[in-house]
Amino acid sequence: MWDWLINGIVNQVNEVFRLLTESIGDLISLASKSPSQFNQNIWSTVLSINERAVLPIAYMILSIFLFTELIQILRKTEAQGIESLRFFVIFIFKLMIGMMVLENIPEILDGVYSLSAEIVRNANFTINTVPAVSGSVTDALEGQDIGTLISLWFTCSIINVIQPLCQSLCGIVLKLRYVEIYVMSAIAALPLATVVSSSHEISSIGYGFIKRICALSLQVVFIMVVFLFYGQMITTEAVVISVNEVSTSMWELIGYTSLLVIALFQTGSWSKAIMGAH
Predict the structure, then answer these.
(1) pLDDT in tens, the chain (278 residues)
(2) Which of 43, 140, 142, 224 could, after both became Cys, cross-link 36 (CB 3.0–4.6 A)?
(3) Would you say 237 and 253 are in contact if contact means Cβ atoms under 8 Å apart?
(4) Which pTM value belongs to this model?
């Protein structure tokens, strides 16, 4: 008697699982891209800013720190002859290393981000296909009264509105990571110019920046693990939907997606904690 309503609910439930499957695939594809693959034009602009605007200043900072350091050492030790020559050799050696680092910033950044991409590829993160739920949902709805069916139809309609909002929030989190990568990469030469300094207070600026970049690279691994667990929970929910009430299963999906959003926001903190970045 209420076949038309049952069919409408079944279509709503199928639409929820279809959107979940498609969106999780799109989010995984987005997360696994390198900064250059995400937006080649922005990445080229970032490297251009770093090379044309930031790099000259970084050379000045490198020279000032090393010259100041050399003068302070010579004054404290009052070195002469061979001893002073040794300090000059160390100064030249540090200067060469510093210049080598600054001149190869694009390669350094690409290497750091490629490392996480290689981890993701080797881990082979794949989401299982969600099984068809039409038959199990239809069986679960058979014999339900009209009030329950109408309530369930409205529930599914609300979930079909909430679910895309949650997926959009997930996309925003992933894109914010790329924005942070672009900003940090654009000024990379400035902190890296301090790496060769003998002063721990100064060199910690460069090492802290390296940790931050490595944390941004590692973050995508945590993101993929979160997506993997989320996909498994969706698959499990599709399997047991005939056992649970359909409305309960639908709200559990919303709960899982909300947890996904929260976990994605936390992935940045997790990666920074492991790398010791601030």
Answers:
(1) 556 666 777 777 777 777 777 777 788 888 888 888 888 999 999 999 988 999 999 999 888 888 887 777 766 666 565 666 677 777 788 888 888 989 898 888 888 888 887 777 776 666 666 655 555 666 666 666 677 777 777 777 777 787 788 888 888 988 999 999 999 999 999 999 988 887 888 888 989 999 999 999 889 889 888 888 887 787 776 655 654 566 777 778 788 888 888 998 999 999 999 888 77
(2) 43
(3) yes
(4) 0.81
